[in-house]
Each structure stands twice: as structure tokens, then as C-alpha cells.
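Run log // design_07
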């Protein structure tokens, strides 16, 4: 899933540390591109910088430090960084004329992939830092303030999560009632189109105790819904307190015990790592939301093989049958790539067919983008751009119809809503359905952080509209209300 241009939500920083002399606050502006893991990383970077006196800024204009947390997944995503650096260059010149500081840093997957090249191509950049070294960010910033141009992209031997400051509940409060938590990072699967194994490194699972401690702090700060993140989140494994081997299903049960956490999600899963325990958790764990992002990418076995996905279309459909047999109301979400090298019209028809068979509640679809250094980029039979465009349009039309049908089917039903924030119009609040759709309702329905029954009245293009409702008795609620 790709959420380009998500604004980072930097932590409410505090100036100085307890006992230290107060320092003039410096400001940091973080712009986040790419996936949810980058959103999470931006938050951790903001927390780390808060310890050295940086407070968040809403704009780059008055920032002493501008950080771009970048994405390398498709060509367009990576290009955005250089055009943004062009704009920042002008800002930096203006600030320097006024005798003020502005350090510019590039973090994230472009930083990891291009390293030195960024500093060479963009004189405006003072520091480059890869995702595996974020715990060194305060030190890197200090060195850059001293005048060095720093490129830090070596994989650290130490565990960055051990060295990053824990999110403080007082800083978490105010960020919102939903949060991300990375439990697994990196990937060893090497799909032939994908840069992630090169930008995020190999598959690493964080230990149980570290995850539980972080989740508890987030819950103390008011978080009600937690989304566990990983490039292959369902490959997560760890050792439980009793020494036994845990998979993601077992971890979800443990996290559901944390007071205050009412909803759990995880993303992104790989079809090959959906084990029985995780599937069973969708039946047995009320806090686990009935929504599953399980990308298939393509429907043709020939293309799946060329992509090195290591499963067939039939394997994927059988898996979905098993999941739906366990939890009938689960909503499926997916990612698709059209125009992978060698994709014929018949191959593309197989993608359309798998979409019809699965019936997705939500999906993300992309034109294949050849990425330097990946095997796919060197394959013969690259598909011409106009063909990709046309296939993408057809696919998106079908996916949109399915998404719309899924939303419309909820009209008239009572569902549980987690109230997240004030709405755009006075007197309204916005929250999320169990299936991740934004829902708009009168503020009388509940306060922020409450989970309340609402009746869906209509379905708009992007949101559902609801009215407060008495508690439901039907099966439509998709998820338990705990402690409300
Ligand atoms: N780990 C996840 C995917 C992470 S990348 C998985 O295995 O499913 C997120 C999505 O970006 C992918 O699912 C894929 O649909 C898309 N993507 C990745 N590389 C791409 C490329 N080179 N061109 C177009 N889309 C790509
Ligand atoms: Fe990329 Fe494939 Fe790994 Fe997903 S499983 S991150 S698509 S290499
Ligand atoms: Fe992009 Fe890196 Fe995420 S390439 S999608 S930011 S893992």
C-alpha cells in the first residue's frame, strides 16, 4: 500500500531535558512519503529529535531542520524527492540570507538506495540517513550542524529499536487514537519488481517484550487502535516469555490484553506466510478487525512466476476460501501491478478474473515501474506505457465498482465506530468502520476514542454517513467493544 504525501505528525516536543538548562527550541519539519512504515519512522525520528531539543513545525518555512522521509518503490515516488529538494533549496537560501539555519536531510528508502549520489546531485542536502540508522539521527544532525555533510547508510550492527527513545505517553497523547507499530522490517523474498529487500534490508522481527512495552506506552497515551506493520508482517516470529516460538497470531492475542487497546490490525501480509494460527485469530480474537490486506499482484501464473511470488493464482484463491470459511465477514484488500514485463492481454485478463473471484473491499493498483537493480528491469518485453495505462484504467474501474458495492451494502446496518477526530463541519466527528472506511457522524454519537454503535445512512465516494444508534445485535458490527 502506498500512501504518498501523508503529512508526518511529529511529536509534541519538549524543550530541553529534565534538569538541563533550557535551550532555545529549534524546529524540525518532516515530510513523509511512501508507506505506513515511513509514517511510523517519521514519528520515531521526531521523538528522537525531541530529546535533543527539536520541536515540530507544521511548515518548512520556519524550520531549522527539514527532513524528507522518502519512498523508492516506483520511479514517480523517487522523482518527487528531487523536485521537492529544488523547492527547499530556495527556502534555504532565503533563510540563510536572513542569517538563520536550515539543515536539509534525506531519510527513507531513496536515502538508502542512492546514498552519496544524493549529496552529489543536490548541493542543498546536508545529511542522508538510511532507515536502519535512525537511532543515530541526533548524532548525525549534530555533525551536520558542525558543518559536515553526513551520509549514514551502513547497516548498523546494533538494534536501532533498542536505541531509539521509547514514545512517551505524554507525547503520544494528542497524536490521535490510532497508531502504527513496526514489528517486522525488511524482506528476503526478492520479488523481481521490488526494491524493498535492497532499501530495508533482510527480514528482521522485533522481540516480543519490546513490542509489548511499546504498545503499552501507546495505549497509556490514549491509543485505542494499533496497526502492526511489516513489509512481511505475517512472517513475524519471536520467542514468548515461556520460551516457546510465537507467530503473529499469538502476538496479537498478547497485545489484545493491554488495557485500552480495543482494535488491532496488521499490514502487509504475504500469501505464503498466512498460517493457521493467524487465520484462527480472525475467528477467536474479537479485537482483531475483519479486514485483511493480502496483495496478489497478478492473476496469471506465468506472471506470478516471473515476479517470483512463489504461489499460483489457485493457491491464493484457496487461501482466501480458508480465511472466509473462518471469518465470513472479512473484507479483502490487495495490491496489483499491471504491465509487468511480458504481460499479455490474456495474462491481464487473468488479473481481472482473480479480482472478480475475490471481490475486494479496497485495493491499490499500479503500473509496473522498472526499478534499477531489480531483475524485472532487465527483462525483455517491457510493456509499452499506453498499454499499461489502458489496463490500469480497466482494472481500477472494476476495483472501484467492488469498493462501492461493499460500501453500499453497509447502508441500513449498525456498525461499531471508533471516533477519531472532529469532522470538517462543526458538530461532526469522523471515525473508522471495522473495515477501515471513514465514517462521518453527529458528535453526539461519542467522544474521541469512544467505540460506539452507529447506523449507516448513506455511502459517499470516500466516506460513509451515519447516525448514532442503539447497540446492535446483528453480526454486522465486525469487532468487539471492550471496556466502553
Ligand atoms: N510486501 C508487500 C508489498 C510492499 S510494496 C507484498 O509483498 O505484497 C507495496 C506495493 O507496491 C506492492 O504490493 C506492489 O503492488 C507495488 N509495487 C512494488 N514495486 C513496484 C514496482 N516496481 N512497480 C509498480 N508497483 C510496485
Ligand atoms: Fe517487495 Fe516482494 Fe518483499 Fe513484498 S514480498 S516487500 S513485494 S520483495
Ligand atoms: Fe516506499 Fe520504502 Fe515503504 S520504498 S513503500 S517507503 S518500504
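design_07 sequence
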Amino acid at each position: 500500500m502506498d500512501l504518498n504525501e501523508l503529512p508526518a505528525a511529529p511529536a509534541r516536543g519538549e524543550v530541553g531535558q529534565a534538569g538541563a538548562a533550557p535551550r532555545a527550541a529549534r524546529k524540525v519539519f518532516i515530510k513523509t512519503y511512501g508507506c505506513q512504515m515511513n509514517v511510523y519512522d517519521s514519528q520515531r525520528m521526531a521523538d528522537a529529535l525531541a530529546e535533543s531539543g527539536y520541536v515540530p513545525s507544521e511548515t518548512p518555512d520556519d524550520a531549522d531542520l527539514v527532513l524528507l522521509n522518502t519512498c523508492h518503490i516506483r520511479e514517480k515516488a523517487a522523482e518527487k524527492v528531487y523536485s521537492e529538494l529544488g523547492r527547499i533549496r530556495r527556502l534555504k537560501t532565503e533563510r540563510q540570507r536572513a542569517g538563520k539555519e536550515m539543515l536539509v536531510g534525506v531519510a527513507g528508502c531513496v536515502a538508502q538506495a542512492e546514498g552519496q549520489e544524493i549529496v552529489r546531485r543536490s548541493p542543498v542536502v546536508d545529511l542522508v540517513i538510511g532507515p536502519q540508522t535512525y537511532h543515530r539521527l541526533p548524532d548525525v544532525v549534530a555533525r551536520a550542524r558542525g558543518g559536515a555533510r553526513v551520509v549514514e547508510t551502513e547497516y548498523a550492527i546494533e538494534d536501532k529499536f533498542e536505541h531509539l527513545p521509547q514514545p512517551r505517553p505524554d507525547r503520544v497523547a494528542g497524536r490521535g487514537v490510532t497508531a502504527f507499530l513496526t514489528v517486522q522490517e525488511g524482506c528476503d523474498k526478492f520479488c523481481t519488481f521490488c526494491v524493498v529487500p535492497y532499501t530495508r534490508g533482510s527480514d528482521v522481527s522485533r522481540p516480543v517484550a519490546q513490542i509489548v512495552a511499546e504498545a503499552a506506552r501507546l495505549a497509556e497515551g490514549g491509543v485505542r487502535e494499533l496497526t502492526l506493520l511489516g513489509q512481511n508482517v505475517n512472517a513475524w516470529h519471536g520467542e514468548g516469555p515461556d520460551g516457546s516460538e510465537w507467530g503473529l497470531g499469538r502476538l496479537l492475542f498478547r497485545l489484545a490484553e493491554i488495557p485500552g487497546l480495543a482494535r488491532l490490525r496488521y499490514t502487509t501480509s504475504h500469501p505464503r506466510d498466512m498460517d493457521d494460527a493467524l487465520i484462527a485469530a480472525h475467528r477467536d480474537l474479537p479485537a482483531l478487525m475483519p479486514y485483511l490486506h493480502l496483495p496478489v499482484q497478478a492473476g496469471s501464473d506465468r506472471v506470478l512466476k516471473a515476479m517470483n511470488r512463489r504461489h499460483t493464482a489457485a493457491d491464493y484463491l484457496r487461501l482466501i476460501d480458508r480465511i472466509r470459511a473462518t471469518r465470513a465477514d472479512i473484507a479483502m484488500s490487495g495490491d496489483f501491478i499491471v504491465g509487468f514485463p511480458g504481460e499479455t492481454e490474456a495474462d491481464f485478463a487473468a488479473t481481472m478474473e482473480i479480482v472478480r473471484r475475490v471481490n475486494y473491499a479496497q485495493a491499490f493498483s499500479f503500473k509496473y515501474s522498472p526499478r534499477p537493480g531489480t531483475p524485472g528491469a532487465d527483462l525483455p518485453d517491457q510493456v509499452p506505457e499506453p498499454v499499461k495505462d489502458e489496463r490500469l484504467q480497466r482494472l481500477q474501474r472494476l476495483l472501484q465498482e467492488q469498493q462501492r458495492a461493499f460500501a453500499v451494502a453497509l447502508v441500513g446496518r449498525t456498525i461499531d465506530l471508533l471516533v477519531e477526530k472532529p469532522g470538517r463541519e462543526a458538530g461532526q466527528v469522523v471515525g473508522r468502520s471495522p473495515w477501515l472506511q471513514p465514517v462521518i457522524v453527529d458528535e453526539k454519537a461519542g467522544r474521541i476514542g469512544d467505540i460506539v454503535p452507529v447506523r449507516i445512512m448513506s455511502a459517499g465516494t470516500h466516506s460513509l454517513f451515519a447516525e448514532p444508534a442503539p447497540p446492535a445485535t446483528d453480526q454486522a458490527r465486525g469487532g468487539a467493544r471492550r471496556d466502553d
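Confidence is low (pLDDT under 50) at residues 1-21, 479-484.
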